[in-house]
Amino acid sequence: MNSCEKIIEDVLTENYGQFYRLAYGYVRNEEDALDIVQESAYKAIKEAEKLKNPAFAKTWIYRIVINTAISQLRKKRETVSLDEAAEIAVNASYGNADLQKALSGLTDEQKTLIRLRFFEDMKLEEIAMVMDENPNTIKSRLYRTLKELQVKMA
């Protein structure tokens, strides 16, 4: 095991709960979230040599979890039945039905911004690293997304 693999393994172990919570925020299903985290961990360890700066291992893994979750959602959208879709909507746990409806109308990128900022309580700089964007770009996209949510909920 090389040093990058060890760092990644340590980050995965120390932050497993955060990665699970993020995955669960996307799929709203315990087993699927566990699968996403497991698959993400496998990808991270397998691709360890691609990590350029070990100081950003956590951010790098967040990106892998997000991409894996979005990929799984896209696959599932193609195969989900109407009954399953209704069950997912009923069991959505963002609480407010209007908020849930408004969030469902957002793009994957917008949902990621909202999840990372408000459900994962990340700072704009951290979100920028996860999404590989400039912090000012993230700030303006978040502002526009919040305005869009406000309009949808009005």
TrEMBL record:
Record domain RNA polymerase sigma factor 70 region 4 type: where: 98-149
Top-level taxon of the source organism: Bacteria
InterPro entries: RNA_pol_sigma-70-like (IPR039425), RNA_pol_sigma-70_dom (IPR014284), RNA_pol_sigma70_r2 (IPR007627), RNA_pol_sigma70_r4_t2 (IPR013249), RNA_pol_sigma_r2 (IPR013325), RNA_pol_sigma_r3/r4-like (IPR013324), WH-like_DNA-bd_sf (IPR036388)
UniProt KW keywords: Sigma factor, Transcription, Transcription regulation
Domain RNA polymerase sigma-70 region: 13-77
Similarity annotation: Belongs to the sigma-70 factor family. ECF subfamily.
Name of this chain's protein: Sigma-70 family RNA polymerase sigma factor
Lineage, opening ranks: Bacteria, Bacillati, Bacillota, Clostridia, Lachnospirales
